[in-house]
Design brief:
Layout: H1 6-15, E1 19-23, H2 27-40, E2 44-49, H3 50-55, H4 59-72, E3 79-86, H5 88-97, E4 101-104, H6 111-128, E5 131-136, E6 141-143, E7 146-148, H7 155-162, E8 168-171, H8 189-199, E9 204-206, H9 214-222, E10 225-230, H10 232-247, H11 259-262, H12 264-281
Parallel strand pairs: 1-2, 1-10, 2-3, 3-4, 4-5, 5-8, 8-9, 9-10
Antiparallel strand pairs: 6-7
Helix pairs in contact: 2-4, 2-12, 5-6, 7-8, 10-12
Bound molecules: zinc ion.
The site of zinc ion (ZN) has 6 residues, from loops.
Length: 288
C-alpha cells in the first residue's frame, strides 16, 4: 500500500539521512526502483512530473501500475507516489487519482499567492492523510519546460510556508535541474543553514541531485536535507547502457531485438544508480 512521505521523512531528518525521490517514466523505471528499494530495505519516493504523467497515459494509469507492482512484487518497504513540481490543478488531479503525496510548485507566484494556494492544499492533504511538498525560491535549470535561474530562497519566506503545515519544503539553494554546468557556483550552505535555522524540524528537499559531488550531498544532509530528488542520473545511465547494447550489435543477434532483452541493460543500469544513491543518502536498512 502506498504511504504518505511524512513518517519516512521525519525519521530521516531525525536520523540524519535522506530518502531518495526517483522519477519514473515507464514500467521498467518503476519496477527497477521498487525492486532496488526492497533489496536495499530502503524507503523510497516515486516522483512523477506532469509531463511524465501525460506520457504514461495519465495519473490513474500510474496509480494502477504502481499499486499492482507493490502487490505482485511483494514490496513491503514504505513507498510514496509523489507528484513532482505540480500545478495547483495537477495536485488536485493526483489527489483524486490516488497518489499518496504531492508537490505544489508555487515558487513562480508572488509569496502571498503561494501562501494562499498552499494553505488550501494543506487542508485537503491533511484530510486525506497525504504529504505535501512546497517550494520557495525557484530551482534552476529546466524541468518539463519550466526554466528557473537557480536562485536562493528567502529564509523568512521559507518559514512562512513551513508554518502553513506542509510536510516538506524545497528551498532553492543554488541547485539546478539536469546536468550542472562547468561554471556552477555550488550549493549555498549559508542559505541552507539559515533556512534550517528558521524551519526547525521541517524536512528539507534538495532538487537537482544529479551530479552534485558526494561530500556536498553529505554536508547538505547534515544541514537538514531529508529528501533528495534524482531524475537525470537514471536517464543518463539508462541511455548509456542501451546505447552500448545497440552499438555492440546485440539487437541483431538472435532475438536480441525483443524489448525484454533490448531494455534489460538499461533496467539493470537504473537499479545500479538507485542502489548507489541509496547508499550515499544513508537510507539503506531504514525501511522500518
Ligand atoms: Zn525539482
Amino acid at each position: 500500500m502506498l504511504v504518505s512521505a511524512k513518517e519516512m521523512l521525519q525519521k530521516a531528518k531525525a536520523g540524519k539521512y535522506a530518502v531518495g525521490q526517483f522519477n519514473i517514466n515507464n514500467l521498467e523505471w518503476t519496477k527497477a526502483i521498487l525492486l532496488t528499494a526492497q533489496e536495499m530495505n530502503s524507503p523510497v519516493i516515486l516522483g512523477v512530473s506532469e509531463g511524465a504523467g501525460k506520457y504514461m497515459a495519465g495519473y490513474t494509469t500510474i496509480v494502477g501500475m504502481v499499486n499492482g507492482m507493490l502487490k505482485e512484487l511483494n514490496i513491503t518497504v514504505p513507498v510514496a507516489l509523489h507528484l513532482d513540481h505540480g500545478s495547483y490543478e495537477g495536485c488536485l488531479k493526483c489527489i483524486e487519482a490516488g497518489f499518496s503525496s504531492v508537490m505544489f510548485d508555487g515558487s513562480h507566484y508572488p509569496i502571498d499567492e503561494n501562501v494562499a494556494k498552499t494553505t488550501e492544499l494543506v487542508k485537503i492533504c491533511n484530510e486525506k492523510g497525504m504529504s505535501l511538498e512546497a517550494e520557495v525560491g525557484s530551482i534552476g535549470g529546466e524541468e518539463d519546460g519550466v526554466v528557473g535561474a537557480g536562485e536562493c530562497a528567502d529564509p523568512d519566506e521559507c518559514k512562512a510556508i513551513a508554518d502553513l503545515g506542509v510536510t516538506m519544503l524545497a528551498a532553492g539553494i543554488g541547485n539546478i535541474h539536469g546536468k550542472y554546468p562547468a561554471n556552477w557556483a555550488g550549493l549555498s550552505f549559508e542559505t541552507l543553514a539559515a533556512v534550517q535555522e528558521k524551519t526547525g524540524e521541517m524536512p528539507l528537499v534538495l532538487h537537482g541531485g544529479t551530479g552534485i559531488p558526494e561530500d556536498t550531498i553529505k554536508k547538505a544532509i547534515s544541514l537538514g536535507v531529508a529528501k533528495i530528488n534524482v531524475n537525470t542520473e537514471c536517464q543518463l545511465s539508462f541511455a548509456d547502457a542501451t546505447r552500448k547494447y545497440i552499438e555492440a550489435g546485440k539487437d541483431l543477434e538472435g532475438k536480441g531485438f525483443d524489448p525484454r532483452k533490448l531494455l534489460a541493460p538499461g533496467f539493470e543500469a537504473i537499479k545500479a544508480t538507485v542502489k548507489e544513491k541509496m547508499e550515499l543518502f544513508g537510507s539503506v536498512n531504514k525501511a522500518c
